[in-house]
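Structural prep section.
Before we set up the soaks we want a predicted structure of the protein with nicotinamide-adenine-dinucleotide in place, mainly to decide which crystallisation condition to try first. Input record follows.
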Amino acid sequence: MSLVTPMVIFQGDLATAIHELAKCKHGVALTGAGLSLASGIPTFRGKGGLWEKYDPLVYAHIQCFLHEPEKLWQMQKELLDVILPAKPNKAHEALVTMERMKRLACIITQNVDGLHTVAGSLNVLEFHGNKRRLVCLNCSNRYPSERYLEQCPPRCECGAILKPDVVLFGEQIPIDVLMRSRSEASQADLLLVAGTSAVVSPASDIPILAKNSGCFIIEINPEITPLTGYVSDLFLQGPTEEILPMLVEGLQSKTNSDRTP
Ligand code: NAD
Ligand code: ZN
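Run finished without errors. Recording the tokens verbatim:
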């Protein structure tokens, strides 16, 4: 028996999602790698990803950066060649519109591609950092990632090898981002969980924290996850680049019809 339900978006479910979004007071989105797939960036566990070639626990580990930075940069430059030219897709754009319509107070993203900000979202908490920046662990200077094009591994003006400004395996989530994300999750009355397998901790705690505070959880993913049917109140099955624009369209027509005398 397959655990995957058929690829059908029930109109009733879509209408419920639009209704909940229209009435929420503090909407939050938690996004993951699936949201950027339509921008050409492979997901963590999807087929053909870089992770099949490079074991992330070796090549994306802080110990690798500290002891063999050239090895870490062997993988990083391939990742940056994919991430830097990538453009936001319809899912990123839909979330920008939702923020402008005051339906979303904030986006908590596990993505390190910076595409929410490139698209125009203003309040974005980058849980795992941003690969568009490099950081020096010696003097804390930061640089745009293009610096690796001149020299790889790229170096800081102080001479130290630069690290992508992301949370590597073996590193802690920056405490300010962790605290702010938890605070957003516990204030949220609606959480959109979009394009994440929801298995990478501690980001995977966010939906549970929100749920325990009484939040309504809408999950959007082509496949079920450990949240589906347990933590999620509503599961919209399908790609975010199709479903998020449908929600925006529904919200816009609802706003227009509510205004009509
Ligand atoms: P994941 O790879 O574990 O899961 C991706 C999820 O996206 C899956 O559940 C999959 O079913 C779903 N998906 C596939 N296509 C989709 C689509 N079109 N629309 C919506 N969903 C779709 O990703 P994760 O949960 O974000 O965890 C992976 C970790 O790896 C994160 O911590 C992240 O930092 C990192 N990562 C980031 C990027 C990026 O920045 N774009 C890419 C790969 C990995
Ligand atoms: Zn430095």
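Observations: Residues 240-259 form the longest helix (20 residues).
Flagged for discussion at group meeting.
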